[in-house]
Amino acid sequence: MLELWELGGEGNCRYSTFCWRTRLALHHKGLPFAIHPVAVSDKAAIGFSGQTKVPILRHEDRMVTDSWAIALYLEREFPDRPSLFSGAVGETLTQVFNVWTDRELIPALVPYLMRDVLDCVADADAAHLRAQIESGFKRSLEELVGERPKALPAFRRKLQPVRKALDQKQFLGGSQPTYADYVLFGVLQWARVVSRVEVLEAGDAVSAWFERVLDLYDGVGRKELSRTERLRETAA
Amino acid sequence: MLELWELGGEGNCRYSTFCWRTRLALHHKGLPFAIHPVAVSDKAAIGFSGQTKVPILRHEDRMVTDSWAIALYLEREFPDRPSLFSGAVGETLTQVFNVWTDRELIPALVPYLMRDVLDCVADADAAHLRAQIESGFKRSLEELVGERPKALPAFRRKLQPVRKALDQKQFLGGSQPTYADYVLFGVLQWARVVSRVEVLEAGDAVSAWFERVLDLYDGVGRKELSRTERLRETAA
């Protein structure tokens, strides 16, 4: 029995970039799992884990935290299921890609869309997130929104290495998705769920790839409503 | 019969970052090959190839240019030899890594050490290289040297994704080297051959890895004298 604790916002939306990595990794392995949403400010809900961050995976009596550690755990524990890395070269280069995404891609995008997140979570969570980001970036969320017109083109430029590969390939795994696809997907899915901002330009090979990943595993990514779709539902 | 045309400088030194990628790929495949050094300003020497850049690989009656195209060619043409990518996931992630190296790592290091290259090549080549870099960066080589104290720490920070992997693994291929190792090696070998500047700090996991790659294939990387070693020989 596998259980996943992941961030949940208002209207039960799932916006955590790290939890999406784990969610798709579990689907990739074809493993059934139960999901428990946790509000970002609700440390008590995950107090059992001995730490304060999601995703958390419970497998029988074992607890694994950190999306990269979970990916390694799933790969070792379920070797007969489809591989997340396809061997040692894939695993090491995926680790490089994972750290690059965390250090380069996320800071290039997340702060500039963070103001939008406050409208997707309960008030206590909004206060918590604002304090966290503003102390990290030493600017108000509103100042960060002001920098958005410059930030988006810079973010798109950073995607050039993956764009070059996706000009030729269906996925970062070649003709089939691999864990690196889920790492990148998590960034863009976060943006899709929290903000109406168009992060990618029309015609971008990365955009076409994102649509393909949204369709994977019976469309689990696409079934999660985008911010635009949620606002439309509220208005109707 | 395989023949490789690569950049050669004074004292027959081999300093091209791209040519080192190809050289180690040929060793990885265990293929015998002949090497022809070409001076950077001597287009006539490679006129036969119909273009102006090295590396160039000739295999029987076929000519392949561009280090990435050569890697793909070797992988397809010699499938029974040790793989450069270990499958589709490795190939696509290596392509991402290759483009990232060209777009992020090389511009973060090469211009700041470029002044040193002029002392490693003939006068005509030095004039050619100076014009090329100064027009690209819109600054004199001497101005770029002035920025070096800031550039080196920025370069080291960019290596953090590979450093995290190399903290745990012997090579980017895991326990064995893969083409991605040769891509990164090419950058640091370029620096070692052209400049006395210590690009990495002592104790850096990337530095320990670089020493391992210098030793591969009977020490082909290490047999190429560093700038410091060449100056010592001249002084002796």
Provide a descriptive summary of the structure in words:
2 copies of one chain form a homodimer. With 236 residues, chain A is α+β, with helices and mostly antiparallel strands. Chain A has 10 helices and 4 strands. The first copy, chain A, has helices at residues 17-28, 67-77, 88-117, 123-137, 141-146, 148-158, 160-166, 179-194, 205-223, 227-235; strands at 2-7, 33-38, 56-59, 62-65. Chain A has a 4-stranded mixed sheet, covered by helices on one side. In chain A, helix 3 (88-117) packs parallel to helix 8. At the A-B interface, helix 3 and helix 7 of A face helix 3 and helix 7 of B.
Q: What's the main sheet of chain A like? A: 4 strands, mixed
- Cα shape of chain A: globular
Q: What helical percentage do the residues of chain A reach? A: 55-70%
Mean pLDDT across the residues of chain A is 94
Secondary-structure element order of chain A, as H and E? Answer: EHEEEHHHHHHHHH
Task: Describe the structure concisely for a colleague.
The first copy, chain A, has helices spanning 17-28, 67-77, 88-117, 123-137, 141-146, 148-158, 160-166, 179-194, 205-223, 227-235, and strands at residues 2-7, 33-38, 56-59, 62-65.
